[in-house]
Amino acid sequence: MLECDQWRNASETEFDNAREGMEKLVMNRLFGEIFCSRTTDDAERDEIIHQKIQIFRWIEERHLDIPSSPHNASYFEFAQKELLKMNNYRAPRDKLICILNCCIVIFSKWHRMDAWLAG
């Protein structure tokens, strides 16, 4: 893209935005071919992952050394929603932002808990 006359004089920010837009365009156009191919066993593998996730549904806050609190549910619900939003996006950067937001919520909770325990 840098060799194209249209982007040769673009600022770094403009070029980054254009590159991100191009990535989204390409991923939206190719998503079905890349991730929904008829020749893969994705559905079977998804079911196996789903079963493995179900195995760990018994884990609670106390197992992670997080004191139980009525406020925890809202934190973890928000973090879960961030991960579920990944299915709405196709571009890798957008999916990573969802993961980052989830991590920020969880680490924020841990940080507040540490401050509360120290205080």
UniProtKB/TrEMBL annotation:
Pfam families listed in its UniProt record: DUF5601, VPS9
One record GO biological process: vesicle-mediated transport
Entry's Gene Ontology molecular function annotations: guanyl-nucleotide exchange factor activity; small GTPase binding
Ranges of residues in domain VPS9: 43-119
Cellular component GO terms, alphabetical: cytosol; endocytic vesicle
Protein name (database record): VPS9 domain-containing protein
Protein source organism: Syncephalis pseudoplumigaleata
Lineage, highest ranks first: Eukaryota, Fungi, Fungi incertae sedis, Zoopagomycota, Zoopagomycotina
